[in-house]
Amino acid sequence: MSGRLVHIGSAVVDFVYRIDALPAPGTEKTASSFAQVAGGGFNMMVAASRTGMKVAFGGQLGSGPNGDFLRAALAAEGIATLTPASTMMDSGNCVAMISGDAERTFVSWPGAESVLSLGMMAPIRVAPGDWVFASGYTLSYVGSRDALADWIEALPAEIPFVFDPTPVISDIPRTILDRVLARTSWLSCNIVEAAEIAGAGDVEAIAARLLSNHSPSAEGVVIRAGAKGCFVRLADGTAQAVPGFKVAAVDTNGAGDTHIGAFVSALSRGVPPVEAARYANAAAALSVTRHGGSSAPTDQEIQTFLGHYDRLTTVHSRKQEAHF
Of 69, 164, 198, 241, most Cβ neighbours within 10 A? Predict the structure, then answer.
């Protein structure tokens, strides 16, 4: 595999509490467990790295205990850090509450990752074969959005740029969002985020408008639908729903990040987009069967999962044919 994934985003420390259900206003809950883990953009980077892609982090980390924690976590995954630590502040954090139905609720506090400048990003050098990724979180911060949008627009034309608008899309000024979408090579989002950009409608119509009206130079768009899988539309008009995999979910935190990381990793080694989307569906399915946002599987685990699923499907089809 050639090139790298250069992640220009936000890595934060997650404080994860597991509870049976969210507390009602004015009440208190006792968590069944607590963990401090690396989160935010870290989850997407881990998914790409574990599936075989070389990864480098080009966002900013802090100079306090949170930044130290994140640097150690990145190093443990073999992910290089391209920029110096902030001398002004520590990295931010996020409180994640995971309820008994595997859903999650977040409260975030921005830190060093929310302040980017072109000078701070000067050490980042992209080369032919590299892929670049950014998310809506970094574009939602007042202290980073303008510099990041400028940096993205200045990327060489041959460098693929992948964008995930994230749930904070409504916090991104439309002028900034439009500039980034215009440079996007691959857009990955859920249906709510897609409709926020392109307006309401069925998934096929929304995907078509995303490409024609908002990202006309993109190769394609992926609209994620959780356990149902995703919908892929390509610039040539090809469109296909890619079914998900039924698993027993215990924690959906990081599933979208895992999907994007695995999808980009597959694309970077020449896997066709629809096949890459199925690969990403499998990666996300495996991730939700494990606790923790950075629960992305390895390439071998995904291949084993897909092989087992395909064998079961073949056996089931033969039984149906024999019965008929």
Answer: 164
- The Cα 305–Cα 307 span in angstroms is 5
Contact between 260 and 44 under an 8 Å Cβ cutoff? The reply is: yes
pLDDT digits (tens, 9 = 90+) for 180-200: 999 999 999 999 999 999 999
Longest dimension (CA), the chain: 71
Amino acid letter for position 15: F
| Whole-prediction pTM | 0.91
pLDDT of res. 321? 44
**Residue from 78, 88, 68 nearest 11 by CA:** 68
Q: Which CATH superfamily is domain 4-22+31-313 in?
A: Ribokinase (3.40.1190.20)
Judge whether residue 176 has pLDDT over 70: yes
Q: What is the residue type of 159?
A: I
Could you tell me the residue ranges of all domains in the chain?
4-22+31-313
Q: How far apart are CA 11 and CA 294, in angstroms?
A: 12
Render the burial of 158-176: b for 16+ CB within 10 Å, e for the rest.
ebbbbbbbbbbbeebeeeb
